């Protein structure tokens, strides 16, 4: 589970933090909308066409089905709203509201639910090996993400854009990354309990 989470964090970080160029758009709001819509639709191939990066797109591919399922579950619940944009010459600010799964809380709840079962099995006749324990965790984690009442996190932020070569460029920040991924990068803190 840790390997999958770390790999997903790396992929999402590379995709978002390397984001610097969005396709031609007349307005900053068009640029923001294009990026967010493609990201939400999980159309990373198209999203990469909007990105200026030295990272080969194959480096952003998910390694296995579990990673794909997590990514799909998280991004299916991603919601956004562009509240306003303000343009001042070649600079712009987009005020964006992003709602996503609260992954650290979901993982904490999953671990709290599963740890008693895993500890009990360790001291009983039923022997759960690491592979089975990881499969149980993954199943519960995905079920918790897909739960209609799963905890969410809402972030409102200003996203800076600049105009380069007649195209609006998003200046990606850690708050944007955190908002889009439901604080995915903080999940490793939960795993270091």
What does this structure look like?
- The protein has eight helices and four strands.
- By secondary structure, the chain is of the alpha+beta class.
- The protein has a four-stranded antiparallel β-sheet with strand order 1-2-3-4.
- It is elongated.
- The two termini are 14 Å apart.
- Mean pLDDT is 80; it is low at 17-25.
- It comes from Clostridium mobile.
Short description:
With 193 residues, the chain is of the alpha+beta class.
Architecture blueprint of SSEs:
Blueprint: H1 2-17, H2 28-40, H3 44-49, H4 65-76, E1 79-88, E2 91-101, H5 103-122, H6 130-146, E3 152-164, E4 167-171, H7 174-180, H8 187-191
Antiparallel strand pairs: 1-2, 2-3, 3-4
**Low-confidence sequence ranges:** 17-25
Determine the number of helices (DSSP H or I, runs of at least 4 residues). Answer: 8
Helix fraction bin? 40-55%
Q: Using only CA atoms, what is the Rg?
A: 19 Å
Shape: elongated
Widest beta sheet: strand line-up: 1-2-3-4
Strand content: 15-25%
Structural class: alpha+beta
Biggest sheet overview: 4 strands, antiparallel
What's the count of strands? 4
Count of folded domains: 1
Measured between the Cα atoms of the first and last residue, the distance is: 14 Å
Keywords: Signal
Organism: Clostridium mobile
Signal peptide: 1-23
Protein name: DUF4878 domain-containing protein
């Amino acid at each position: 589970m840790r390997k999958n989470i770390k790999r997903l964090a790396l992929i999402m970080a590379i995709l978002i933090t390397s984001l610097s160029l969005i396709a031609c758009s007349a307005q900053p709001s068009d640029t923001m909308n294009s990026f967010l819509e493609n990201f939400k639709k999980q159309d990373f191939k198209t999203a990469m066409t909007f990105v200026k990066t030295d990272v080969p797109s194959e480096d952003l591919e998910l390694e296995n089905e579990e990673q794909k399922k997590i990514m799909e579950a998280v991004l299916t619940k991603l919601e956004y709203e562009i509240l306003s944009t303000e343009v001042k010459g070649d600079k712009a600010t987009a005020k964006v509201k992003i709602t996503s799964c609260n992954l650290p809380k979901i993982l904490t709840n999953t671990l709290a639910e599963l740890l008693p079962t895993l500890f009990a099995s360790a001291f009983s006749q039923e022997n759960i090996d690491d592979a089975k324990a990881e499969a149980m965790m993954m199943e519960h984690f995905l079920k918790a993400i897909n739960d209609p009442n799963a905890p969410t996190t809402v972030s409102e932020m200003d996203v800076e854009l600049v105009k380069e070569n007649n195209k609006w460029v998003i200046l990606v920040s850690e708050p944007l990354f955190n908002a889009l991924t439901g604080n995915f990068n903080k999940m490793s803190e939960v795993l270091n309990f």
